Amino acid sequence: MMRMDLPALLRLGIAVVLSACAVLLSAWIKVPWPGIAALGILFANVIAAGALAGARRVSLSKWGLRAGWACTIVIPVTLLFKAQRAFTLDGYYAALAWAVAAVLFLTANQSSDAEVGKRWKLLGVIWAFCGGCVWIFVSYEQNLVGAFYAGLLVILALLILCKFWFAMPLWSAQLANTLILIAIGLPAVDLFVRPSYRLNTEPKTGRNYYSYEAAKRNPTAFARWWNYYLEQWHSMGRTVFIPDPEGFLPFRLRPNSRAMLFHSQIEINSQGFRGKEFSSRKNGAFRIVALGESTTFGCTLNPEDRPWPELLEGMIRERIRPARPVEVINAGVPSYALQHNNHRLPAEILPLEPDMIISYHGYNGFSMLYGALPPPYENMPPAYRARPLKLLADCEYRLKILHYKKRKFSKFKELPPTIPDPMKTIYAQEYERLVDLAATNRIRLVVANFSMAVNSLSDVELVEFYRDPFPAVHWQIKANEVLSRITEQLAREHPAVCFVDTHPNLDGQHEKFIDLVHFTQPGRQQIAETLFAGIRKLLEQDLAESVPR
Known about the structure:
- By secondary structure, the protein is of the alpha/beta class.
- It has 17 helices and nine strands.
- The protein is elongated.
Protein backbone atom coordinates (compact mmCIF):
# COMPACT_ATOMS: atom_id res chain seq x y z
CA MET A 1 0.00 0.00 0.00
CA MET A 2 1.19 3.54 -0.73
CA ARG A 3 1.32 6.26 1.87
CA MET A 4 -1.65 8.55 1.41
CA ASP A 5 -1.87 12.14 2.55
CA LEU A 6 -4.67 13.17 4.89
CA PRO A 7 -6.97 14.73 2.22
CA ALA A 8 -6.70 11.64 0.03
CA LEU A 9 -7.31 9.39 3.02
CA LEU A 10 -10.32 11.51 3.99
CA ARG A 11 -11.75 11.32 0.47
CA LEU A 12 -11.28 7.57 0.48
CA GLY A 13 -13.00 7.25 3.85
CA ILE A 14 -15.96 9.32 2.68
CA ALA A 15 -16.17 7.16 -0.47
CA VAL A 16 -16.27 4.00 1.66
CA VAL A 17 -19.07 5.42 3.84
CA LEU A 18 -21.04 6.60 0.79
CA SER A 19 -20.60 3.18 -0.81
CA ALA A 20 -21.99 1.42 2.24
CA CYS A 21 -24.94 3.86 2.38
CA ALA A 22 -25.64 3.38 -1.33
CA VAL A 23 -25.69 -0.43 -0.97
CA LEU A 24 -28.06 -0.17 2.00
CA LEU A 25 -30.28 2.26 0.07
CA SER A 26 -30.38 -0.06 -2.93
CA ALA A 27 -31.47 -2.90 -0.66
CA TRP A 28 -34.11 -0.68 1.01
CA ILE A 29 -35.68 0.38 -2.31
CA LYS A 30 -35.60 -3.28 -3.36
CA VAL A 31 -33.14 -3.19 -6.24
CA PRO A 32 -32.90 -6.81 -7.51
CA TRP A 33 -29.98 -8.72 -6.03
CA PRO A 34 -27.96 -8.82 -9.31
CA GLY A 35 -28.10 -5.01 -9.31
CA ILE A 36 -26.95 -4.82 -5.68
CA ALA A 37 -24.13 -7.25 -6.46
CA ALA A 38 -23.09 -5.16 -9.49
CA LEU A 39 -23.16 -2.05 -7.32
CA GLY A 40 -20.91 -3.75 -4.75
CA ILE A 41 -18.45 -4.81 -7.47
CA LEU A 42 -18.41 -1.27 -8.87
CA PHE A 43 -17.61 0.22 -5.45
CA ALA A 44 -14.97 -2.41 -4.71
CA ASN A 45 -13.18 -1.67 -7.98
CA VAL A 46 -13.26 2.12 -7.71
CA ILE A 47 -12.11 2.13 -4.07
CA ALA A 48 -9.37 -0.42 -4.74
CA ALA A 49 -8.21 1.58 -7.77
CA GLY A 50 -7.91 4.67 -5.60
CA ALA A 51 -6.20 2.94 -2.69
CA LEU A 52 -3.43 0.86 -4.29
CA ALA A 53 -0.04 2.25 -5.33
CA GLY A 54 2.10 2.54 -8.42
CA ALA A 55 1.85 0.45 -11.56
CA ARG A 56 -0.41 -1.97 -9.74
CA ARG A 57 -2.87 0.84 -9.14
CA VAL A 58 -2.82 1.88 -12.81
CA SER A 59 -3.33 -1.69 -13.94
CA LEU A 60 -6.12 -2.30 -11.41
CA SER A 61 -7.68 1.06 -12.27
CA LYS A 62 -7.89 0.10 -15.96
CA TRP A 63 -9.41 -3.29 -15.20
CA GLY A 64 -11.65 -1.74 -12.57
CA LEU A 65 -12.82 0.84 -15.08
CA ARG A 66 -13.92 -1.91 -17.47
CA ALA A 67 -15.72 -3.65 -14.62
CA GLY A 68 -17.29 -0.34 -13.59
CA TRP A 69 -18.75 0.25 -17.06
CA ALA A 70 -20.04 -3.32 -17.15
CA CYS A 71 -21.71 -2.92 -13.75
CA THR A 72 -23.19 0.42 -14.84
CA ILE A 73 -24.95 -1.42 -17.66
CA VAL A 74 -26.07 -4.33 -15.47
CA ILE A 75 -27.77 -2.21 -12.79
CA PRO A 76 -30.41 -0.49 -15.03
CA VAL A 77 -31.00 -3.78 -16.85
CA THR A 78 -31.98 -5.41 -13.56
CA LEU A 79 -34.35 -2.50 -12.90
CA LEU A 80 -35.95 -3.04 -16.29
CA PHE A 81 -36.71 -6.64 -15.35
CA LYS A 82 -38.17 -5.37 -12.08
CA ALA A 83 -40.33 -2.86 -13.99
CA GLN A 84 -42.11 -5.75 -15.73
CA ARG A 85 -43.41 -6.87 -12.33
CA ALA A 86 -43.91 -3.85 -10.11
CA PHE A 87 -41.74 -0.76 -10.26
CA THR A 88 -42.30 2.87 -9.29
CA LEU A 89 -39.63 5.39 -10.09
CA ASP A 90 -39.11 7.84 -7.25
CA GLY A 91 -36.53 10.23 -5.83
CA TYR A 92 -34.66 7.47 -3.98
CA TYR A 93 -33.29 6.18 -7.29
CA ALA A 94 -31.94 9.68 -8.01
CA ALA A 95 -30.31 9.72 -4.55
CA LEU A 96 -28.74 6.32 -5.26
CA ALA A 97 -27.35 7.49 -8.60
CA TRP A 98 -25.92 10.65 -7.03
CA ALA A 99 -24.31 8.64 -4.24
CA VAL A 100 -22.57 6.43 -6.85
CA ALA A 101 -21.48 9.56 -8.75
CA ALA A 102 -20.06 11.08 -5.56
CA VAL A 103 -17.98 7.93 -4.89
CA LEU A 104 -16.65 8.03 -8.44
CA PHE A 105 -15.78 11.75 -8.25
CA LEU A 106 -14.04 11.29 -4.87
CA THR A 107 -11.78 8.51 -6.17
CA ALA A 108 -11.31 9.60 -9.80
CA ASN A 109 -8.50 12.06 -8.97
CA GLN A 110 -6.63 9.35 -7.06
CA SER A 111 -5.58 7.58 -10.27
CA SER A 112 -1.90 7.89 -11.27
CA ASP A 113 -2.93 7.80 -14.95
CA ALA A 114 -4.65 11.08 -15.87
CA GLU A 115 -6.49 9.50 -18.82
CA VAL A 116 -7.84 6.67 -16.67
CA GLY A 117 -8.87 9.24 -14.05
CA LYS A 118 -10.85 11.17 -16.67
CA ARG A 119 -12.66 8.00 -17.68
CA TRP A 120 -13.60 7.34 -14.08
CA LYS A 121 -14.82 10.93 -13.89
CA LEU A 122 -16.83 10.43 -17.11
CA LEU A 123 -18.49 7.43 -15.53
CA GLY A 124 -19.32 9.60 -12.52
CA VAL A 125 -20.85 12.25 -14.80
CA ILE A 126 -23.04 9.61 -16.41
CA TRP A 127 -24.31 8.43 -13.02
CA ALA A 128 -24.92 12.04 -11.90
CA PHE A 129 -26.69 12.81 -15.17
CA CYS A 130 -28.93 9.74 -14.81
CA GLY A 131 -29.74 10.79 -11.25
CA GLY A 132 -30.65 14.26 -12.47
CA CYS A 133 -32.90 12.84 -15.19
CA VAL A 134 -34.69 10.62 -12.66
CA TRP A 135 -35.11 13.56 -10.30
CA ILE A 136 -36.54 15.76 -13.08
CA PHE A 137 -38.92 13.01 -14.20
CA VAL A 138 -40.24 12.37 -10.67
CA SER A 139 -40.65 16.06 -9.84
CA TYR A 140 -42.32 16.67 -13.23
CA GLU A 141 -44.75 13.79 -12.66
CA GLN A 142 -45.62 15.03 -9.17
CA ASN A 143 -45.67 18.71 -10.22
CA LEU A 144 -42.97 19.67 -7.71
CA VAL A 145 -41.90 22.96 -9.27
CA GLY A 146 -38.96 23.75 -6.95
CA ALA A 147 -37.55 20.22 -7.14
CA PHE A 148 -37.96 20.21 -10.93
CA TYR A 149 -35.93 23.38 -11.38
CA ALA A 150 -33.33 22.12 -8.90
CA GLY A 151 -32.89 18.99 -11.02
CA LEU A 152 -32.69 21.14 -14.13
CA LEU A 153 -29.89 23.17 -12.54
CA VAL A 154 -28.01 19.95 -11.71
CA ILE A 155 -28.22 18.83 -15.35
CA LEU A 156 -27.17 22.26 -16.57
CA ALA A 157 -24.16 22.30 -14.21
CA LEU A 158 -23.07 18.83 -15.36
CA LEU A 159 -23.26 19.83 -19.02
CA ILE A 160 -21.15 22.93 -18.41
CA LEU A 161 -18.60 20.95 -16.37
CA CYS A 162 -18.30 18.39 -19.16
CA LYS A 163 -17.20 21.15 -21.54
CA PHE A 164 -14.39 22.07 -19.11
CA TRP A 165 -13.38 18.58 -18.03
CA PHE A 166 -13.32 16.66 -21.31
CA ALA A 167 -11.99 17.18 -24.81
CA MET A 168 -15.31 16.56 -26.53
CA PRO A 169 -15.67 15.50 -30.16
CA LEU A 170 -17.70 17.84 -32.38
CA TRP A 171 -20.94 15.84 -32.24
CA SER A 172 -20.91 15.54 -28.44
CA ALA A 173 -20.05 19.23 -28.03
CA GLN A 174 -23.00 20.13 -30.28
CA LEU A 175 -25.27 17.80 -28.28
CA ALA A 176 -24.12 19.37 -25.00
CA ASN A 177 -24.69 22.88 -26.37
CA THR A 178 -28.17 21.90 -27.57
CA LEU A 179 -29.10 20.45 -24.18
CA ILE A 180 -27.77 23.59 -22.43
CA LEU A 181 -29.92 25.77 -24.69
CA ILE A 182 -32.97 23.60 -24.00
CA ALA A 183 -32.35 23.63 -20.23
CA ILE A 184 -32.17 27.44 -20.27
CA GLY A 185 -34.53 28.29 -23.11
CA LEU A 186 -37.50 26.04 -22.34
CA PRO A 187 -38.21 27.48 -18.86
CA ALA A 188 -37.64 31.00 -20.21
CA VAL A 189 -40.15 30.52 -23.04
CA ASP A 190 -42.59 28.85 -20.65
CA LEU A 191 -42.33 31.80 -18.26
CA PHE A 192 -42.94 34.21 -21.12
CA VAL A 193 -46.02 32.48 -22.57
CA ARG A 194 -47.54 31.21 -19.29
CA PRO A 195 -49.72 34.32 -18.69
CA SER A 196 -51.46 33.77 -22.04
CA TYR A 197 -52.65 30.39 -20.80
CA ARG A 198 -54.69 31.90 -18.01
CA LEU A 199 -58.36 31.84 -18.93
CA ASN A 200 -60.76 34.47 -17.64
CA THR A 201 -63.46 32.32 -16.06
CA GLU A 202 -64.85 34.92 -13.66
CA PRO A 203 -68.68 34.84 -13.68
CA LYS A 204 -69.10 38.50 -14.69
CA THR A 205 -66.40 38.68 -17.32
CA GLY A 206 -65.91 35.08 -18.43
CA ARG A 207 -66.00 34.43 -22.15
CA ASN A 208 -67.79 31.49 -23.74
CA TYR A 209 -64.58 29.78 -24.82
CA TYR A 210 -66.60 26.60 -25.45
CA SER A 211 -68.94 28.16 -28.03
CA TYR A 212 -68.63 27.39 -31.71
CA GLU A 213 -68.28 31.07 -32.64
CA ALA A 214 -65.55 31.70 -30.03
CA ALA A 215 -63.70 28.53 -31.02
CA LYS A 216 -63.65 29.58 -34.67
CA ARG A 217 -62.09 32.90 -33.69
CA ASN A 218 -59.57 31.38 -31.31
CA PRO A 219 -59.10 27.58 -31.61
CA THR A 220 -56.17 27.67 -29.17
CA ALA A 221 -58.27 29.26 -26.44
CA PHE A 222 -60.96 26.63 -27.00
CA ALA A 223 -58.45 23.77 -26.71
CA ARG A 224 -57.05 25.19 -23.49
CA TRP A 225 -60.52 25.82 -22.08
CA TRP A 226 -61.54 22.25 -22.92
CA ASN A 227 -58.50 20.91 -21.09
CA TYR A 228 -59.40 23.02 -18.08
CA TYR A 229 -63.06 21.94 -18.32
CA LEU A 230 -62.13 18.26 -18.16
CA GLU A 231 -59.78 18.88 -15.26
CA GLN A 232 -62.59 20.65 -13.40
CA TRP A 233 -64.81 17.58 -13.80
CA HIS A 234 -62.02 15.28 -12.62
CA SER A 235 -61.26 17.55 -9.67
CA MET A 236 -64.92 17.71 -8.64
CA GLY A 237 -65.26 13.95 -9.02
CA ARG A 238 -62.29 13.25 -6.76
CA THR A 239 -64.20 14.98 -3.97
CA VAL A 240 -67.83 13.91 -4.43
CA PHE A 241 -67.53 10.46 -6.06
CA ILE A 242 -66.93 7.30 -4.01
CA PRO A 243 -66.76 3.64 -5.11
CA ASP A 244 -69.98 1.66 -5.24
CA PRO A 245 -69.77 -1.15 -2.64
CA GLU A 246 -71.77 -3.45 -4.91
CA GLY A 247 -69.58 -2.72 -7.91
CA PHE A 248 -72.58 -2.35 -10.24
CA LEU A 249 -72.71 1.45 -10.43
CA PRO A 250 -69.84 3.51 -11.87
CA PHE A 251 -69.60 5.21 -8.44
CA ARG A 252 -71.81 6.89 -5.86
CA LEU A 253 -72.16 10.44 -4.62
CA ARG A 254 -70.47 11.05 -1.29
CA PRO A 255 -73.04 12.24 1.27
CA ASN A 256 -72.35 15.59 2.92
CA SER A 257 -69.65 16.57 0.44
CA ARG A 258 -68.91 19.82 -1.34
CA ALA A 259 -66.77 20.67 -4.35
CA MET A 260 -66.32 23.45 -6.87
CA LEU A 261 -66.98 23.20 -10.60
CA PHE A 262 -65.47 26.36 -12.01
CA HIS A 263 -67.22 28.97 -9.80
CA SER A 264 -70.26 26.86 -8.98
CA GLN A 265 -70.48 25.05 -5.66
CA ILE A 266 -71.62 21.43 -5.90
CA GLU A 267 -73.34 20.33 -2.70
CA ILE A 268 -74.30 16.71 -1.99
CA ASN A 269 -76.78 16.40 0.86
CA SER A 270 -76.80 13.82 3.64
CA GLN A 271 -78.86 11.38 1.54
CA GLY A 272 -76.46 11.45 -1.42
CA PHE A 273 -78.39 13.74 -3.79
CA ARG A 274 -77.30 17.05 -5.25
CA GLY A 275 -79.17 19.94 -3.66
CA LYS A 276 -80.66 21.05 -0.39
CA GLU A 277 -81.55 18.77 2.48
CA PHE A 278 -84.98 17.14 2.54
CA SER A 279 -86.77 14.80 4.92
CA SER A 280 -86.96 11.11 4.17
CA ARG A 281 -90.69 11.39 4.91
CA LYS A 282 -92.78 13.55 2.61
CA ASN A 283 -94.79 15.22 5.37
CA GLY A 284 -97.63 16.02 2.98
CA ALA A 285 -95.43 17.31 0.13
CA PHE A 286 -95.98 16.40 -3.52
CA ARG A 287 -92.64 14.84 -4.42
CA ILE A 288 -91.10 14.69 -7.90
CA VAL A 289 -87.87 12.80 -8.54
CA ALA A 290 -85.80 13.93 -11.56
CA LEU A 291 -83.99 10.80 -12.72
CA GLY A 292 -81.10 11.23 -15.11
CA GLU A 293 -77.44 11.67 -15.93
CA SER A 294 -74.94 14.54 -15.59
CA THR A 295 -77.32 16.63 -17.71
CA THR A 296 -79.80 16.36 -14.81
CA PHE A 297 -77.16 16.59 -12.09
CA GLY A 298 -76.13 19.89 -13.65
CA CYS A 299 -72.90 21.12 -15.23
CA THR A 300 -73.10 24.51 -13.56
CA LEU A 301 -70.24 26.96 -14.02
CA ASN A 302 -71.18 30.17 -12.19
CA PRO A 303 -72.41 30.85 -8.65
CA GLU A 304 -75.90 31.79 -9.87
CA ASP A 305 -76.31 28.74 -12.13
CA ARG A 306 -78.90 26.13 -11.10
CA PRO A 307 -79.65 22.58 -12.32
CA TRP A 308 -82.93 22.23 -14.20
CA PRO A 309 -84.71 20.23 -11.41
CA GLU A 310 -84.22 23.21 -9.11
CA LEU A 311 -85.49 25.59 -11.79
CA LEU A 312 -88.51 23.34 -12.37
CA GLU A 313 -89.39 23.38 -8.67
CA GLY A 314 -89.32 27.17 -8.66
CA MET A 315 -91.60 27.35 -11.73
CA ILE A 316 -94.15 25.01 -10.15
CA ARG A 317 -94.28 27.05 -6.95
CA GLU A 318 -94.45 30.44 -8.67
CA ARG A 319 -96.80 29.63 -11.55
CA ILE A 320 -99.16 27.03 -10.10
CA ARG A 321 -99.00 28.14 -6.46
CA PRO A 322 -100.07 24.73 -5.15
CA ALA A 323 -101.86 24.41 -1.83
CA ARG A 324 -99.38 21.80 -0.67
CA PRO A 325 -95.57 21.88 -0.83
CA VAL A 326 -93.88 20.57 -3.98
CA GLU A 327 -90.38 19.10 -3.90
CA VAL A 328 -88.27 18.27 -6.96
CA ILE A 329 -85.38 16.00 -5.95
CA ASN A 330 -82.35 15.97 -8.24
CA ALA A 331 -81.48 12.27 -8.59
CA GLY A 332 -79.20 12.79 -11.59
CA VAL A 333 -75.68 11.36 -11.32
CA PRO A 334 -72.82 11.84 -13.83
CA SER A 335 -71.97 8.73 -15.89
CA TYR A 336 -75.19 6.94 -14.86
CA ALA A 337 -77.36 5.42 -17.58
CA LEU A 338 -80.97 4.24 -17.36
CA GLN A 339 -79.99 0.74 -16.18
CA HIS A 340 -78.07 2.27 -13.26
CA ASN A 341 -80.99 4.41 -12.17
CA ASN A 342 -83.37 1.45 -12.51
CA HIS A 343 -81.01 -0.41 -10.20
CA ARG A 344 -81.26 2.44 -7.66
CA LEU A 345 -85.05 2.62 -7.70
CA PRO A 346 -85.98 -0.08 -5.14
CA ALA A 347 -83.46 0.90 -2.47
CA GLU A 348 -82.95 4.64 -2.99
CA ILE A 349 -85.81 6.21 -4.96
CA LEU A 350 -88.99 4.32 -4.01
CA PRO A 351 -88.42 4.80 -0.24
CA LEU A 352 -88.74 8.54 -0.93
CA GLU A 353 -92.39 7.87 -1.93
CA PRO A 354 -92.32 9.95 -5.13
CA ASP A 355 -95.61 11.01 -6.68
CA MET A 356 -93.94 11.59 -10.03
CA ILE A 357 -90.71 10.50 -11.72
CA ILE A 358 -89.27 12.48 -14.63
CA SER A 359 -86.83 10.45 -16.74
CA TYR A 360 -84.32 12.40 -18.82
CA HIS A 361 -81.84 9.84 -20.14
CA GLY A 362 -79.81 9.61 -23.31
CA TYR A 363 -76.08 9.92 -23.98
CA ASN A 364 -74.81 7.63 -21.23
CA GLY A 365 -76.92 4.74 -22.48
CA PHE A 366 -76.11 4.95 -26.19
CA SER A 367 -73.96 1.84 -25.79
CA MET A 368 -77.24 -0.07 -25.19
CA LEU A 369 -78.19 0.82 -28.77
CA TYR A 370 -74.78 0.41 -30.39
CA GLY A 371 -72.49 -1.94 -28.52
CA ALA A 372 -69.44 -0.41 -30.21
CA LEU A 373 -70.01 2.78 -28.23
CA PRO A 374 -68.33 2.37 -24.84
CA PRO A 375 -70.12 3.54 -21.68
CA PRO A 376 -68.96 7.03 -20.67
CA TYR A 377 -67.37 5.91 -17.40
CA GLU A 378 -65.22 3.47 -19.41
CA ASN A 379 -64.46 6.13 -21.96
CA MET A 380 -63.17 9.06 -19.94
CA PRO A 381 -60.48 11.03 -21.77
CA PRO A 382 -57.20 11.50 -19.93
CA ALA A 383 -57.23 14.36 -17.47
CA TYR A 384 -55.05 17.40 -18.00
CA ARG A 385 -52.30 17.31 -15.38
CA ALA A 386 -50.53 20.39 -14.07
CA ARG A 387 -46.76 20.22 -14.58
CA PRO A 388 -43.82 22.49 -13.69
CA LEU A 389 -43.55 23.50 -17.37
CA LYS A 390 -46.88 24.40 -18.98
CA LEU A 391 -45.52 23.85 -22.50
CA LEU A 392 -44.54 20.28 -21.68
CA ALA A 393 -47.87 19.69 -19.92
CA ASP A 394 -49.76 20.76 -23.06
CA CYS A 395 -47.57 18.61 -25.30
CA GLU A 396 -48.03 15.61 -22.99
CA TYR A 397 -51.80 16.10 -22.95
CA ARG A 398 -52.06 16.35 -26.74
CA LEU A 399 -50.10 13.13 -27.17
CA LYS A 400 -52.36 11.36 -24.64
CA ILE A 401 -55.49 12.62 -26.41
CA LEU A 402 -54.19 11.47 -29.81
CA HIS A 403 -53.46 8.02 -28.39
CA TYR A 404 -56.84 7.96 -26.64
CA LYS A 405 -58.73 8.83 -29.82
CA LYS A 406 -56.79 6.36 -31.93
CA ARG A 407 -57.39 3.56 -29.42
CA LYS A 408 -61.04 4.30 -28.66
CA PHE A 409 -62.57 5.82 -31.76
CA SER A 410 -60.77 4.66 -34.87
CA LYS A 411 -63.72 2.35 -35.65
CA PHE A 412 -66.27 5.20 -35.84
CA LYS A 413 -65.22 6.58 -39.22
CA GLU A 414 -68.24 4.97 -40.88
CA LEU A 415 -71.87 5.61 -39.97
CA PRO A 416 -73.52 3.06 -37.64
CA PRO A 417 -75.78 0.31 -38.99
CA THR A 418 -79.55 0.75 -39.03
CA ILE A 419 -81.47 -0.77 -36.10
CA PRO A 420 -84.47 -2.66 -37.59
CA ASP A 421 -86.59 -2.64 -34.41
CA PRO A 422 -85.55 -0.11 -31.74
CA MET A 423 -88.10 -1.59 -29.28
CA LYS A 424 -86.04 -4.81 -29.13
CA THR A 425 -82.89 -3.03 -27.94
CA ILE A 426 -81.58 -3.14 -24.37
CA TYR A 427 -82.42 0.56 -24.00
CA ALA A 428 -86.08 -0.12 -24.78
CA GLN A 429 -86.09 -3.03 -22.33
CA GLU A 430 -84.77 -0.78 -19.58
CA TYR A 431 -87.50 1.75 -20.33
CA GLU A 432 -90.11 -1.02 -20.09
CA ARG A 433 -88.63 -1.93 -16.73
CA LEU A 434 -88.96 1.68 -15.57
CA VAL A 435 -92.59 1.76 -16.76
CA ASP A 436 -93.37 -1.42 -14.82
CA LEU A 437 -91.69 -0.15 -11.65
CA ALA A 438 -93.62 3.13 -11.82
CA ALA A 439 -96.96 1.40 -12.53
CA THR A 440 -96.48 -1.16 -9.77
CA ASN A 441 -95.82 1.60 -7.23
CA ARG A 442 -98.56 3.89 -8.60
CA ILE A 443 -96.12 6.65 -9.56
CA ARG A 444 -96.81 9.09 -12.38
CA LEU A 445 -94.04 8.56 -14.99
CA VAL A 446 -92.85 11.31 -17.33
CA VAL A 447 -90.44 10.30 -20.09
CA ALA A 448 -88.54 12.97 -22.01
CA ASN A 449 -86.47 12.46 -25.12
CA PHE A 450 -82.87 13.64 -25.19
CA SER A 451 -81.48 16.81 -26.77
CA MET A 452 -77.95 17.47 -28.01
CA ALA A 453 -76.05 20.42 -29.42
CA VAL A 454 -76.15 18.98 -32.95
CA ASN A 455 -78.43 16.66 -34.88
CA SER A 456 -78.73 15.30 -38.41
CA LEU A 457 -79.94 18.72 -39.66
CA SER A 458 -76.97 20.62 -38.24
CA ASP A 459 -74.39 22.23 -40.47
CA VAL A 460 -71.58 19.84 -41.43
CA GLU A 461 -68.92 22.26 -40.21
CA LEU A 462 -70.66 22.50 -36.84
CA VAL A 463 -70.83 18.72 -36.46
CA GLU A 464 -67.13 18.47 -37.31
CA PHE A 465 -66.40 21.02 -34.58
CA TYR A 466 -67.89 18.61 -32.02
CA ARG A 467 -66.11 15.65 -33.57
CA ASP A 468 -62.79 16.68 -32.06
CA PRO A 469 -63.85 16.33 -28.39
CA PHE A 470 -66.50 13.70 -29.30
CA PRO A 471 -65.00 11.52 -32.08
CA ALA A 472 -68.12 9.30 -32.24
CA VAL A 473 -70.51 12.25 -32.71
CA HIS A 474 -72.04 10.86 -35.93
CA TRP A 475 -72.88 7.60 -34.14
CA GLN A 476 -74.27 9.54 -31.18
CA ILE A 477 -76.54 11.60 -33.43
CA LYS A 478 -77.95 8.41 -34.95
CA ALA A 479 -78.29 6.83 -31.50
CA ASN A 480 -80.27 9.83 -30.27
CA GLU A 481 -82.66 9.52 -33.23
CA VAL A 482 -83.25 5.87 -32.32
CA LEU A 483 -83.78 6.80 -28.67
CA SER A 484 -86.38 9.41 -29.65
CA ARG A 485 -88.34 6.76 -31.52
CA ILE A 486 -88.17 4.49 -28.46
CA THR A 487 -89.53 7.14 -26.06
CA GLU A 488 -92.33 8.12 -28.45
CA GLN A 489 -93.32 4.49 -29.07
CA LEU A 490 -93.20 3.79 -25.34
CA ALA A 491 -95.70 6.57 -24.66
CA ARG A 492 -98.01 5.29 -27.40
CA GLU A 493 -97.97 1.77 -25.97
CA HIS A 494 -98.46 2.96 -22.38
CA PRO A 495 -101.11 5.73 -22.21
CA ALA A 496 -100.36 6.33 -18.53
CA VAL A 497 -96.84 7.48 -19.46
CA CYS A 498 -96.50 11.20 -20.17
CA PHE A 499 -94.11 11.95 -23.05
CA VAL A 500 -92.37 15.33 -23.24
CA ASP A 501 -90.58 16.37 -26.40
CA THR A 502 -87.54 18.43 -25.40
CA HIS A 503 -86.35 19.01 -28.97
CA PRO A 504 -88.21 22.27 -29.78
CA ASN A 505 -85.96 25.28 -29.07
CA LEU A 506 -83.24 23.01 -27.69
CA ASP A 507 -82.09 20.05 -29.82
CA GLY A 508 -79.50 21.27 -32.32
CA GLN A 509 -79.37 24.71 -30.65
CA HIS A 510 -75.62 24.56 -29.99
CA GLU A 511 -75.49 27.98 -28.35
CA LYS A 512 -77.46 26.49 -25.42
CA PHE A 513 -74.83 23.81 -24.79
CA ILE A 514 -71.39 23.84 -23.20
CA ASP A 515 -70.41 20.73 -25.13
CA LEU A 516 -72.33 18.06 -27.06
CA VAL A 517 -74.79 17.31 -24.23
CA HIS A 518 -74.27 19.58 -21.20
CA PHE A 519 -76.39 22.71 -21.03
CA THR A 520 -75.48 26.31 -20.49
CA GLN A 521 -77.75 28.11 -18.02
CA PRO A 522 -80.08 29.22 -20.86
CA GLY A 523 -80.20 25.57 -21.94
CA ARG A 524 -81.15 24.47 -18.43
CA GLN A 525 -83.78 27.20 -18.33
CA GLN A 526 -85.16 25.98 -21.66
CA ILE A 527 -85.49 22.32 -20.67
CA ALA A 528 -87.09 23.34 -17.36
CA GLU A 529 -89.61 25.47 -19.31
CA THR A 530 -90.31 22.62 -21.72
CA LEU A 531 -90.80 20.06 -18.96
CA PHE A 532 -93.00 22.42 -16.97
CA ALA A 533 -95.22 23.05 -20.00
CA GLY A 534 -95.38 19.30 -20.66
CA ILE A 535 -96.46 18.32 -17.14
CA ARG A 536 -98.41 21.39 -16.04
CA LYS A 537 -101.89 19.95 -16.65
CA LEU A 538 -100.95 16.67 -15.00
CA LEU A 539 -99.54 18.53 -12.02
CA GLU A 540 -102.63 20.68 -11.63
CA GLN A 541 -104.82 17.59 -11.86
CA ASP A 542 -102.71 15.49 -9.48
CA LEU A 543 -102.30 18.30 -6.96
CA ALA A 544 -106.04 18.88 -6.95
CA GLU A 545 -107.02 15.22 -6.66
CA SER A 546 -104.26 13.71 -4.57
CA VAL A 547 -104.50 13.23 -0.88
CA PRO A 548 -101.20 13.78 0.94
CA ARG A 549 -99.64 10.48 1.96
